[in-house]
Structures are given as structure tokens and as C-alpha cells.
Amino acid sequence: MAVTKVVMPKLSEAMETGKIIKWLKKEGDRIQGGDILAEVETDKADVEMEAFGAGVLRKILIPAGDTAPIGTLIGVIAEPGDDITALVASAPAGAGGAASSGAQKTPLRPEPAPVPPPGAASAAPQAPRQAVAAPSAPQVPVARPALVGAQASVVAGVGPGQAVIASVPAAVAAPAAGASAGGRVKASPLAKKIAAQTGVDLRLIQGSGPGGRIIRRDVEGAGGAALPAASTASGAEFEDVPLSQIRAAIARRMPLSKAPVPHFYVTSEVAMDRAWELREQLNALEGQPKISVNDFVIRACALALLKHPGVNASLQGDAIRVYHRAHIGIAVALDDGLITPVLRDCHAKPLAQIAAESRDLAERARNRKLRAPELSGATFSISNLGMFDVAEFSAIINPPEGAILAVGSVRRVPVVDDAGLGVGRRMMLTISCDHRVMDGAMGARFLQDVKRLLEEPLRLLV
Amino acid sequence: MATHKFDVAVVGTGPGGYVAAIRCAQLGLSVATVEDDRPGGVCLNWGCIPTKALLRNAEVVNLLSHAADFGIRVSGFEASYAEAVQRSRRVADRMAKGVEFLFRKNKITLFPGRGTLRAKNVVEVKGTGGVETLEARAVILATGSEPKSLPGVAIDEKAVISSNGAVRSEAAPRSIAVIGAGAVGVEFADIYASYGVQVTLLEALPRVVPVEDEEVSKELARTFARRGITVKTGVKVAAVKPGGSGVVVDLGGEQLEVERVLMAVGRAAKLTGLGLETVGVQLERGFVKVSPHMETSVKGLYAIGDMAGAPLLAHKAMAEGVVAAEAIAGKSPRPVDYGNVPSCTYCRPQIASIGSTEARAREKGREVSVGRFPFTASGKAVALGETEGFVKVVADKATGEILGVHIIGPEATEIIHEFTLGRTLEATLEEIIHTIHAHPTLSEAALEATLAALGQAIHI
To answer: Is A439 considered catalytic here?
Structure first.
């Protein structure tokens, strides 16, 4: 007859431990598959834990109120005649015990379907444990930040019990390209250095070296040796234009942001009349660099980021890294893509300096003259499509940053105020936020401050 | 006239051709090879191998001349140049026999004679025994290259010789003008000078071994001058005419009278008589145009080695031979990495390099750090009494990427490979310095130069 181990299931992406709120069955109760055994509190919610083996709940190892790491044996379902003493003895003593049992080596596999005991009842207790350990699929690096883990979240979000098990192979089968079993990224020393210097996440890259090793050209975004030449036959109905290096990099990177990073968007309209007026005054001054609307936005964001560090943040595995400095990435459109050079320490730079430096960065970006360090290390980004007469849009977060602000055109629109109907200058701002890092209200409060700074633009000068 | 069917026919059995043939055979293909000389090509018969034998003789002569430095007094030794050449022939014969053995071992059929394409998959072989026709699924052309001359100067292999004549001639001239200070020129300059020939080395470009790093050129010119070789760089040879006791080289103002002239101005692909026009093979600047898998513009027809373009080096030809063979066998081989082909010159001191020169790296806009280590500071080199030269490492300042390494000195051609491997694996300076180098070795100079690039050299 079957002996079924009940282990703490992984019920959400970030879950590492679970707390038994209460057992809904007690020792000695007969259990059918699908019965609710217990309620478990995770980091996100209270979840019901289903049984997936039939028999008698012979033993409860983790009592209500206690916490156990995922994968820990918390109970045993078996027939009354089955010998479970060895299994019970192998369980960690007490709640949150040391991770020593075989089952814990595969934390994403809560418990496989019941395993028929091979012959002698005395051998039965060992059998399920081996059955758990044997398939030892490449361990999904759950502790790794961002995307590898995020793939697992597809699984974990499904729910308790069998559904989780069924989905596990999908997670296992989809390690990030260069990452091999155990989570080690296979990359050449040079590729690692360039990646570190340019802020490229090696786990997002498909290696083209022997055995999928990531080599320099992968990091630099080269598409490989020989790209197919574009067809130039006249009268052709279509043309395959080979991806430029930068377009290939964008194509590879963006889905890796949009899919696993849960975006949410907050939009706000800003009255730009005063900022516009101030800008005209400033630009009329002799010997001052010309200041753009975007420079105002950069300055406003920098000040607001200091006040709202939760937005100036990034998910780093099991921690949120909150930055104390505002390094702002400024998206610059190129003919064949876009690039986001980083203007460092914006919070500490006066408007004129921001204007001069951002112009320089943008110019060099267009001429492909940026240095590697200028392309990495942003804590927040701004994408401005104002010059294209765009009312509003939303942008895709550039990982590992936590948010990006999309800036529309300053448009002259009818406005209603105390004096009645008039004409005003308005600009739409949309912030895209990583929901793993912040919540709607945080994004909204940040945006509110940006709006206030732009509507009272003298604040940007002090 | 018989027609033979094979999977692959390889025309030319130099280092490119014979390696391609063996690799094809290893992959289970039936292979025919076509050769109008002995197997092994220029490399084994007339180039790399016999010249290395001659250079070894030169080295022994030099060592004996300096025996007193080691406290060994050798009185009145006699160095026979004729016997040196004879020895080099024996060495070449032995290696060529080795290729014949490898053909037998791999069941490769050798068709002696000249091969000509009649169609893209048909090779006609004209040999002493008549004409044979080979039909193959794929054909690999590997006919190599031959020495070039200057316009208006005919190589008669008597007064004006090429490397072909130089390796055959058992009589050393009293004086010789070597035109061209590339690898071939400086190697023969070394050989002749060691045997007491009055050598004048002429180079049109401003420095000897002009493709190498400038510092290497400077060091070689210095040691050559010290050994009594007259080095003239930046000189244009206006004419080479019979006169005086042999040949007069007109340097446009200066007349140089020598017994013999060695033309070492480069090599040209051997493309004539192959029937390339018949099948419409595209050329590019005097070489056959090939894909990364060595296929020519004609499907199923491959070209490798010297005829397929620079660098004209045996080891590059061998690498291409493997790529072509594997491509024909339906594998997808990694194309040859032309940026990572070591260049080796076997004069004394030896020269070896990989990657970019310092000047080239800077031209490409790289911010570089450079490390140098002279063999005078190497215990092993001092013990050997071979302290000329240095190791120079050029690296990217930001990443430590090894952009180029330039070695001149004892066994330079053996030391270079750690950097070649390092570059293949994309190692940076750090991986080299974390590699323990045995002491005492000449390779320690490689470690020290690497350390020097990071400002951490210990022994200097």
C-alpha cells in the first residue's frame, strides 16, 4: 500500500517557508485525494493545502502555528498497516528543522504521486524517499534573482498540490540560456568582465560558444558569424533585413523584461505652462546651455527619486536593493534601435549641468561613441517620445531597474480652471513599475511629486 | 582512361590538402588525393620543414662559434653548407614519407599527376602513366602558392633564386642580397649569415618583419646588425641585372653587387591550369573566394590553404582543411578564427605573435595597457645564454582582454601558444597570472609580461 509524504509545498514565487495556520484533518483521519489537509500561510496569502494521496493521516510532524521550509516533511499519509517509523524518524525534529532529508534536495517538488512500496512492508519507508531524490532534475536556482526564478513563478502561481508538481518539469526544462545545472552560468572570463562592466545579465544570454558557453560576441550582442545577406533582387515582394546587433539585443532583452517582470502603469497629466515659461526665460539667458523639457523631467525625477527611494529600487533575488543615488538612463532613439546611456548622480546636478551632460550623452549615443560604463548602472530610466507628437505611451522596464517613466509631448489643450475655459500646456507622464518591487500607491506618490515639481518648476532650480 | 568514383577528391597534398584528406577519411568518406610532387607540399618538401633543418644547422654553427662563452674551446671546426642542405633533404624526405604512410593508414588513394577540373565534381589527373578521371561528390582544391618576384625580375633559380632554389642549392654564395624582410627573407638571412655569407637584407617598408610589432622589428634589426647582417629598410629595388661577379641590385642611386639574389617578396596563389574558369570559380584579389566553411562560389567545390587567402601559413591551411572536411561530411564545424592565427618566424632570435600589434590596437581605438619582460631578466634564458628579446603583452585596459602578444627571443614560437589558447578561451590577463608557470622556464617571461601589463611584474 502507498505511503505518501506530505511536504510543505512551494505556493508562491518568493515562498521559502510556510506556516501551518491549522490542520483541518487530524491524525487518524481517513484522507481522499483532493481533501484539504491544512491551511498554510505564505508570504502572500493563506492557501489551502490539498492531499494527493489516499490513506490515513498517520502522523502530523509540524503542528499548527509552526513554520517549515518548503520541502520539509510535515506529515505522513499511509494505511494503518504500513510501517512509517523510519520515515517519521528521518523527519527534522520540530518546526523549521535542518534541511537534511532527501526530499529537501528538490524544493520545487513538494511530493510526487504515491509510490507503491516494493514488496516487503519494511522496505516501504525508504522507497518514497528514493523516488523523490532519484529524478534529481537540475535544481532550479530558486534563490537566484529575477528571471530564472521568475520562470518558476509561472509554476508556483498555479496553486497547491498536484498542479505544482505537474508544472515543475516545465520550470526545470527552461533554465536561462547560459545557466547550466546548478545555476552556474557558463561564460568566458572576458564575457563575464564585459558583462559586469556593461551591466549585462549573463543569465539572459544565449551562449554561442562550445556547449552553449557565453562568449564575448554574445555579450556584445553580435548575432553570430555570418548573417544572411539582405535580398537585393529588384521587384522582390519582401526583404529580409538582418538584425543589426543592437536590434538583436533589444529583441532578445525586451521579452525577458516584459514577460517575467509584472508591469503596472500609472499615468498623470502635468500642467507645463509654468515650466514652459521658465524654460523660455532660462534659454534666453546668454551663455547658458539650452535646456529641454526632458532636462526638467530628469531633474524632477531625480529629486522625486530621492524622496521615494522605493521607486529607485531593483529586485535582487530575495532582496530589494534601494539606491541612494539617482542614476537615470535616458533612452535615445537611433536609426536601428535605441540605447539608454546613463546620466549619473542626477540628484546632485543642477539643471544646467543635466542639460549639458544629457545633450552630450545623446549626441555620442547617436554617433556610437559611448563608453561601456556609460551604458550601465541606471537606477531608473526615462523615455521621451515628445518630439514625435505622442500624447502618451507606456514603456517597458529595462531590468534590473524597478521603473521607467514614459514622457509624452507638451500639447496645447483646452483646460477648464476657475477662470473658465482656457488654453494650457499639458504633458502626460506614465510610469511603468515592477510590481515585485513596488505597489501602485508608491508609483502614484512618486508621480505626484514629479508632477508637483514640474508644476512649480522653481523648485527645480533650488 | 579510367574513371574512379570517390566521395572526396583533394587536389594538392600540402598541409591543407593532406590534413583535409585524412579528416575526410576519419569521417568515413572515401578520398582520392592528387599530387604532382611528393606528398606534403611546399611545407614539408621545400618550405617549413627543410628550412627548419637548415636553421637548426645555423644554430649549431652559432653555438660552436660561441663555445668559448661556455668554457669550451673548439678549434678549427668546419661547417659544410652542402651537408647542411643534404641533411635538410633527408629531414624533408622523412616527413614526406610520413604523409605517404598516413595516406595508406587512412586508405587514401594517391593519384600522382596534375589535377584539372573538368566539371565542378570531375578532376582529370595527367600523370606519367596517362590520364585518369576522378568523379567526386565534393572536391577540395589545395594547390598552395608559389614565390612572387618583382616586376621585370625573372627568377632563374641560379643567380636570382626563390626559396625553392635556396633550399635546393648546396653551394652557399659568398654574398647575397635578400629582397624582402618578411619571414622567408629573415630566415634565409639568418641561415646564410651563420655560414659566413655576406648578407644584405633589403626591405621596401620602413622596418624588417613589417607585419610584426614595431618593437619586435627594432629588436631584430639590432641583433641582425650585431651579427654582421647589413639591413637596409625603406629601399626600393629599381632593377636586378646580371653584372660584376654575379648580380647588380639597383637601389636607385646605390648599386649593390652580389653573387646571388634571393627573392623573398611574397607568394602568390597557384591558380593556373586548374580549370577554375571551366567551372566559374570566383576569385578575390588573386585568391579563391571562399565561405566560412571553405566552399567556393561553386557548390561542392572547396578551396583551402594559401590559394584561399591570407595568412599564407601551413597551420592556417591545416585548420581550414579540417573545416572543409567536416563541412563536406555534413557537420557544422566552427569556422577558422582568422584573428587568432599565430605567426611564427624561426630566425634567431625567434619571433612569434598573436593578435594585434600595439599600434594596430590603438588605431582601433582601444585603450591599452602594455606589459614587457626582457629575457635578460629570465633566469632560464640567462642560463641558456639566450638573453636577446622580450615578451610584450598588449591588453585592453578596461577588461584585460589579451589583444596581442609579441615575442622575440629563445623558443618564442613555443611560448606563444599559451596566449593563443588563452585567446581561444577568452581568458583575460587575470587568468594568465593565476596560472602557475613552472620555474625556471622561458614561459615565465610570458607570465611576467602579463603581470607587467597590470603593473605587477615581480622580476623587473
So the answer is: yes
Question: Per-residue pLDDT averaged across B219-228, rounded?
Answer: 96
Percentage above 70 pLDDT, chain B: 100
Of B216, B239, B265, the position where a domain reaches its end is B265
The cell for B294 is 571553405
**CB of B426 less than 8 A from some CB of A:** yes
Write the pLDDT tens digit of every residue in B117-151.
999 999 999 998 899 999 999 999 999 999 999 99
Residue A387: what are its φ and ψ, rounded to 5°? -70, -10
Q: For residue A373, what is the nearest residue in chain B, using CA coordinates? A: B398
Phi, psi of A396 (to 5 degrees): -95, 130
* Total count of domains within chain B: 3
Which domains, from first to last, does chain A contain?
4-138 (2.40.50.100), 261-460 (3.30.559.10)
> What phi, psi does B370 have (nearest 5°)?
-120, 135
Phi-psi region of A141 (alpha: psi -120 to 50; beta: other; left: phi over 0): beta
Residue in B closest to A215 by C-alpha: B426
Size of chain A, expressed as the number of residues it contains: 462
Is some CB atom of chain A closer than 8 A to the CB atom of B342? no
Taking a contact as any Cβ pair under 8 Å apart, which residues of chain B between 392 and 411 contact chain A? 398-401
pLDDT at B223 over 80: yes
In tens, the pLDDT along A361-394 reads 999 888 877 877 788 889 999 999 998 999 999 9
CA distance A106 to A115: 17
Going by C-beta distance under 8 Å and a sequence separation of 6 or more, which residues neighbour residue B384? B410, B442
Give the pTM: 0.59
Distance in angstroms (rounded) separating the CA atoms of residues B119 and B130: 19
Of A240, A336, A345, A439, the active-site residue reads A439
Residue B155 is assigned to a structural domain of this protein: no
State the Cα–Cα distance between residues A245 and A223, nearest whole angstrom.
6
Nearest residue in B to A191, CA atom: B426
Alpha helices in B313-391 (DSSP H): 314-328, 358-363, 379-384
Contact between A372 and B398 using a beta-carbon 8 Å cutoff: yes
* Per-residue cell: A215: 562568449
Q: Where are the alpha helices (DSSP H) in A308-376?
A: 351-366
Which tens digit of pLDDT belongs to each residue from A51-63?
Answer: 877 888 998 988 8
- Which of A185, A186, A193 would best serve as a mutation to test chain B binding (most B beta carbons within 10 A)? A193
Q: Are residues B328 and B432 in the same domain?
A: no
Contact B426 A372 (CB under 8 A): no
- Rounded to whole angstroms, the Cα distance separating B129 from B112 reads 9
Structural domain that includes position B188: 160-265
- Residue by residue, DSSP assigns B89-116 as HHHHHHHHHHHHHHHHHTTPEEEESEEE
Among A189, A225, A226, whose Cβ lies nearest the Cβ of B426?
A189
Q: Which of B238, B254, B237, B258 is nearest to B246 (CA)?
A: B258
Question: Does the pLDDT value for residue A178 go beyond 70?
Answer: no
State the Cα–Cα distance between residues B199 and B174, nearest whole angstrom.
Answer: 9
- For the segment B96-125, the average pLDDT, to the nearest whole number, is 96
* Interface confidence (ipTM) of the complex: 0.78
Cβ contact A116:A130 at 8 Å: no
Contact B383, B345 (CB under 8 A): no
Domain end (from B241, B265, B289): B265
